[in-house]
Fold:
Amino acid sequence: VSMARTVSDASGELDDTGAMLGVAAPVFPMWFNPGGDAGAGLPLGVIEADGEWVKIWFPLELPAPVVDDRFVTYEFAAGVRLLVAVMTDGSGFRPVVELDSPEAADWFEDALETARDEGGLLGEGLDIPYRL
Structure:
């Protein structure tokens, strides 16, 4: 994953990936949310293949991430992380929420409940309402 910002989509036209973090040498072009104010209103990740776009959304506002090799980590609170791993073959990515304590799980559940209430999202408890 590169901290360099991308500028255009596959057709050469400007799109919302222009503010996102690009992945170096993927099988399919992909981008990740830069977090903070720069990432407000942007999806968690985008993949483009054969002229088709898939945008994956996350229900919480994303903080600025830490980028380390093929991992993008968003730290929400003590013990609450969203770890996004680019597949080793560069064909996609996998988001995983890590909760390292019952308190972290409580915080995350409360944050999800707030996001559901504000955004009209489905789910309950620790169910994560991803949106495509």
Observations:
- The longest helix spans residues 102-119.
- The chain is about 15% helix and 30% strand.
- The helical segments are 36-39, 102-119.
